[in-house]
TrEMBL record:
Keyword Nucleotide-binding carried by entry: yes
Domain of life from the UniProt record: Bacteria
Keywords: ATP-binding, Ligase, Nucleotide-binding
Annotated InterPro entries: ATP-grasp, ATP_grasp_subdomain_1, CoA-bd, Ligase_CoA_dom, NAD(P)-bd_dom_sf, Succ_CoA_lig_flav_dom, Succinyl-CoA_synth-like
Domain ATP-grasp: start-end pairs: 534-572
Pfam families named among the record's database cross-references: ATP-grasp_5, CoA_binding_2, Ligase_CoA_2, Succ_CoA_lig
Name of the protein: Acetate--CoA ligase family protein
Keyword Metal-binding applies: no
A single MF term (Gene Ontology): ligase activity
SMART domains recorded: CoA_binding
Length: 741
């Protein structure tokens, strides 16, 4: 795990309370209607609200409804824990129970209305919180926590109960955490640790336990939000709040399902604008994982490819394991911004250095060769027969004396080096002890990141427990993989935030002239014919081939003469999706007789198959280019999503596609192309000319505009193939399918 800082201990029991409850960001009003200036062209919010959660995490007064001191009752242990927590933070706690006069010696009120003051927070230790909500609203309680289970996580009946609870909370004006949550927000946080902290958000409390336990090795934790079923307060609310907290260096999340994709992206956008890293484990990559997550929290998990793309689009760092969540969030919380992206691997073993370097390079880290001058400098202290280009092998003996520190300082002094990683596969005292101390001392004198991988499975060695974990400047890991994952995330995050521009700031707020044209072409509840779908594309300025829709063989011949031979002929009908498989496409027709015969054959097949046609398309034949697909689909969580990938039959065989959630700009459209395995095809292969990438990007952006403006009315759009012509010649939509909702 990462190293720590113990700093100066304090005897003030309210220190952590004061630090966590400093000046608050401006609150957003719960339930307040957004103005037109706050909405994009599709009527969705452009900004994330920031709930004023100061009084949730640091209430001055708390009511515990259903408090108990009866032996053997579950509420008794919870009540005792809350009383201890309130005493540590100086919070006034009021037990509430209709039949008890006191709880653990503290006077007990029969109801919230009978309390001597208006409380900030009500903790509901009742099986059904719904009847209590109205009473809390009448008493002007700001926040409530519902521990009760049996809601959306249990199925349809529980989901209905949760919907009733959510509606009551919305009417009340208070904010609710839960139901199906726990006491994690009221844990005992260490108040003796300094530096930037991790704020933790989990939907399963137990899954946050490893991150919370990192306090015991010196990693500071400021907050823990156990969101449970998220009937009201959700992960996005806490991300928005934590992104504004000055003490928060990184936000660590364990997410089973997102309540609302748009809210999550707005919150991630806020964090990205402020440079606060968000690291997340998001379960549901597989069908089994998604099913289990839904049964636990009762929320949609979303198509994982869309979730993954959306997180990447807004800089959320997705990791797979809780160990990765710990190490990556701790590194990102505490490390300074990199001065360079070059990584140098330094070890006392050539084999160790080579092994780590292979893994790091494969993961995408850049390991630049050190300059000849720098290598000559290092050879002052390292024998000439050892490699010092990168990785740097010192042979072992130099770390035992004054030369060890000289080597480390020389590497860190190189302007190309931003990260120094030293894998120590096992303790080898005194050599490993001296190396660890030199690395710690050097790290104190530099702004560059120094990482150590302590590979011993024991973990009780003095060099590890005291020297490395006692350092606030050295990032210490236990495995190669976690170190590489965290360092890659660290470099990626700072590269991302340096160039990040919020897409919501430039999102269109008024419909374009194209929208009015397109709206007239939409047919609610219907699939458009190819001809109608192409008219939709034309409305948004997307180029289609020269073509005419005809209803007779004679008209087809005249159309072919106008379009220009050779031509393609295709049946066109409202519910006709896969024309090629039915023999409803004829390619390369070069004469009037071929066109007449093709028309008769196409209409005969359609008649035999019982397919209603609106005519036959006679199209310009476009041959030379790269076939791509660009489309729009509706995601349950995020709404319209835009896809680009290799087109033709390859989209079904290779599934080489990239996805983004609108709004996004040109840089993200280009990033989509860079994610494709088939990207080299656009650069020209085997003598083919480079494709017109600029035209392809323009089509993607126009399709995005269409997705934003038409919104839910456009259930699906599929441009396949989009023929991307040689550079400077544009792109042509050869076929299109559109489904209206």
């Amino acid at each position: 795990m990462l190293g720590s800082t113990y700093g100066t201990f304090t005897t003030d029991p309210r220190r952590a309370h004061v630090v966590a409850c400093g000046e608050a960001p401006a609150p957003a009003v719960h339930g307040q209607a957004a103005t037109a200036d706050d909405l994009d062209v599709s009527g969705r919010p452009l900004h994330a609200g920031i709930p004023d959660l100061d009084r949730f995490f640091c209430p001055e007064s708390v009511a515990v409804i259903g408090a108990s001191d009866a032996e053997g009752r579950p509420n008794t242990g919870i009540t005792r824990q809350l009383m201890d927590w309130a005493e540590r933070g100086g919070t006034r706690l009021y037990p509430v129970h209709p039949t008890r006069r006191s709880v653990f010696g503290t006077p007990c009120s029969p109801s919230v209305a009978d309390l001597p003051e208006q409380v900030d927070l009500a903790v509901l230790l009742v099986s059904d919180p719904l009847p209590v909500i109205e009473e809390l609203a009448d008493s002007k309680v700001k926040f409530a926590v519902a521990f009760a289970s049996g809601f959306a996580e249990t199925g349809a009946e529980g989901a209905a109960a949760q919907a009733r609870l959510a509606a009551a909370v919305e009417r009340s004006g208070l904010r609710l955490l839960g139901p199906n949550t726990n006491l994690n927000a009221f844990e005992k946080f260490r108040d003796d640790l300094e530096g930037p902290a991790i704020a933790l958000i989990t939907q399963s409390g137990h899954q946050g336990r490893p991150v919370f336990t990192m306090q015991e090795i010196g990693v500071r934790l400021s907050h823990w939000a156990p969101t449970g079923n998220e009937a009201d307060l959700e992960t996005a609310d806490f991300i928005s709040y934590f992104a504004e907290r000055p003490e928060v260096g990184a936000i660590a999340c364990y997410v089973e399902g997102l309540k609302d994709g748009r809210s999550f992206l707005l919150a991630a956008d806020r964090a990205a604008q402020r440079g606060v890293p968000v690291v997340a484990v998001k379960v549901g990559r597989t069908e089994t994982g998604a099913r289990m997550a839904a049964s636990h929290t009762g929320k949609l998990t979303g198509a994982d490819t869309v979730v993954d793309a959306a997180m990447r689009q807004y800089g959320v760092i997705r990791v797979d394991g809780l160990d990765e969540l710990q190490d990556t969030s701790a590194l990102l919380a505490r490390a300074r911004a990199p001065q360079a992206e070059g990584v140098v691997v330094y070890s006392i073993s050539g084999g160790t250095g080579a092994h780590f370097s292979d893994l790091a390079t494969e993961a995408g880290l850049r390991l630049p060769a050190l300059s000849e001058a720098k290598q000559a400098e290092l050879h002052q202290w390292i024998p000439d027969y050892l490699n010092v280009a990168n990785p740097v092998d010192n042979g072992g003996h130099p770390v035992g004396d004054w030369r060890g520190r000289k080597i480390i300082d020389a590497i860190l002094d190189d302007p190309e080096v931003g990260v120094l990683i030293c894998p120590i596969t096992g303790p080898f005292p005194p050599m490993s002890d001296k190396l660890a101390q030199d690395l710690v001392d050097a790290a104190e004198q530099t702004d560059k990141l120094v990482c150590v991988v302590w590979g011993s499975p024991v973990g009780t060695e003095e060099a590890y427990r005291t020297t490395l974990l006692g350092s606030s400047r050295v990032a210490t890991f236990r495995t190669f993989a976690n170190c590489i994952t965290a360092v890659r995330a660290y470099l990626d995050h700072h590269r991302f935030t340096t160039r990040y521009r919020s897409p919501f700031a430039e999102a269109p707020r008024t419909p374009s002239p194209s929208f009015r044209k397109a709206q007239a072409l939409m047919r609610p509840g219907q699939q458009l014919s190819e001809h109608a779908a192409k008219q939709l594309l034309r409305a948004y300025g997307i180029r289609v081939p020269r073509e005419q829709l005809v209803t007779s063989a004679a008209a087809a011949v005249r159309a072919a003469g106008l379009v220009g031979y050779p031509v393609v002929m295709k049946a066109s009908g409202a519910r006709l999706a896969h024309k090629t498989e039915l023999g409803l496409v004829k390619v390369g027709l070069t004469s009037a007789s071929q066109v007449r015969d093709a028309y008769r054959e196409l209409t005969d097949i359609a008649r035999y198959e019982g397919i209603a046609l609106d005519g036959v398309l006679v199209c310009q034949m476009v041959e030379r280019g790269v076939e791509m697909v660009v489309g729009v689909t509706q995601d349950e969580l995020f709404g319209p999503t835009v896809t680009v990938g290799l087109g033709g039959v390859l989209v079904e065989v290779l599934r080489d596609v990239a996805v983004r959630v609108p709004p996004f700009g040109e840089s993200q459209a280009l990033a989509m192309l860079s994610e494709l395995r088939g990207r080299p095809l656009l650069d020209g292969v085997r003598g083919a000319p480079p494709a017109d990438v600029d035209a392809l990007v323009e089509v993607v952006l126009r399709v995005q505009r269409m997705a934003l403006e038409l919104g839910d009315d456009l259930a699906e759009l599929d441009i396949n193939p989009l023929m991307v012509l040689p550079r400077g010649q544009g792109a042509v939509a050869l076929d299109a399918l559109a489904v209206c909702r």
